[in-house]
Structures are given as structure tokens and as C-alpha cells.
Specification:
about 220 residues; mainly alpha; 2 domains
Length: about 220
């Protein structure tokens, strides 16, 4: 990467929304995309609570970091352009995130020195957004790879697009509910997991969350028959 190209990438990333301004779902989207870039396999991706910890860290400690910079940091790490060992060992934690961003900040400091003196100091912030079809394709790729309902990347965004925008998810609600409850109970292999599954089933909000995930899985299941 030439110096000018690197500086241009930095400037483009700086024109996106900050962590403070960004929606949680968009931050999660970039984290998931970044982990794929680093080669983290689906089964090793952070759980929902772990992902929430990552988002909280970004929102709290890196409020001024732009969401485009977060994606750029992942891309630079995968290219070996940052001054840290980018090997993830199939694990992504808050510690790894902090190391990557610290290294990115050192790289960014060099790029700021290369910005022309006549470059505008203020630019309009634009939100980072992955195109709808790319989200659907990515979710479908993880379906084809794992064929498990608990391993769909960006399924919440995909559900929104397929259900509310495209209106392509139209399963009988009772079928989705029964299939979700069945899956939750089947996967509960010990007493603690069985208790957690029943708590989910008895909580309407939690059950709705898992039903949406199941409906998304069923969509791709039908799509690939």
C-alpha cells in the first residue's frame, strides 16, 4: 500500500460516524465482518453476551473512533500492516480488540502527518452501512457452511430486511414457535441448560428473539433446497 493510498483510506474512514453516534446493530455488523476478515470460524465467534461486551468497550472507551476506522483496522490487521501480532488463535476478546485499536491508532498517527495542509479539517460524517444484499449473502454463506440456526452471521439485520423490507419471510407463526421451542429443548443437554431453555420459553420477549432467529434460518433452509 502506497503512502498516499493509506492516507486516503484513513481519510475515507474518518468520514463515517463515531462509535458514540453509531447504532449498536451497525457496530455488531462491522465486528462480525471484521472477524470473518481475520478468519475466525463461525463456531468460534463471540456469543451474544461476549459481543455486547465488545460493543460496550467501543462505546465507552473509543467514543471518537469512527466506525469506518474499526473496519479499516480489521482490514489492516489482516494485511499485516499493523505493528502487533494479528493472529487470533480463533478467539476474539476485549483484550484483542484493545490491542488492535491501539496499534491502529499508531498507524493513524503516521497517516495524519501525510495529510495535505490544504485538506479540509471538517468533513461531513456519513454512516457506515453494508448493502442489504451483501448482508443476505453473508448470512446465507454461514447457513451453507454450518447449517445451524445458532451460527447465522448478521441474522438480525437479515431478518429485518427479509421480513419488513422484502416481506419474504412469511412462515406460519405457530410452526416457527414450535420449531424454536423444540430446538431450544433439544439443545439443552444438561440440567442448567434445560433450566435456561425453559426460562427463555416462558419469557415472551426472549422467545420472540429466538423465533426471529429460527425464522431466518428456515428462510435460508428453504432457499437452498
Amino acid at each position: 500500500m502506497t503512502e498516499q493510498k493509506a492516507t486516503n483510506e484513513y481519510l475515507a474512514a474518518r468520514q463515517t460516524l463515531s462509535m458514540k453516534q453509531s447504532l449498536v446493530q451497525n457496530i455488531v455488523q462491522v465486528l462480525e465482518q471484521g472477524m470473518l476478515i481475520l478468519g475466525i470460524k463461525g463456531q468460534n465467534l463471540p456469543s451474544d453476551p461476549e459481543m455486547q461486551l465488545l460493543v460496550t468497550e467501543l462505546k465507552k472507551e473509543y467514543q471518537g473512533l469512527k466506525i469506518g476506522e474499526l473496519l479499516l483496522a480489521f482490514q489492516l490487521a489482516s494485511r499485516g500492516k499493523l505493528d502487533y501480532n494479528a493472529e487470533t488463535y480463533q478467539m476474539f476478546s476485549v483484550l484483542y480488540l484493545n490491542r488492535m485499536i491501539s496499534s491502529y491508532h499508531r498507524w493513524a498517527a503516521v497517516q495524519r502527518q501525510n495529510i495535505p495542509a490544504d485538506h479540509p479539517t471538517k468533513v461531513e460524517s456519513i454512516p457506515y452501512s453494508m448493502p442489504d444484499q451483501e448482508i443476505i449473502d453473508l448470512c446465507n454463506e454461514t447457513y451453507l457452511k454450518h447449517k445451524r440456526w445458532d451460527m447465522l452471521l448478521m441474522w438480525q439485520k437479515a431478518f429485518h430486511i427479509l421480513f419488513w423490507v422484502r416481506k419474504e419471510i412469511n412462515f406460519n407463526p405457530e410452526i416457527v414457535i414450535n420449531k424454536t421451542i423444540g430446538a431450544l429443548r433439544t439443545e439443552a443437554t444438561d440440567r442448567i441448560k434445560r433450566k435456561a431453555a425453559e426460562q427463555i420459553i416462558e419469557d415472551d420477549d426472549q422467545l420472540e428473539y429466538y423465533c426471529k432467529k429460527m425464522a431466518t434460518f428456515m428462510y435460508f433452509e428453504n432457499l437452498n433446497k
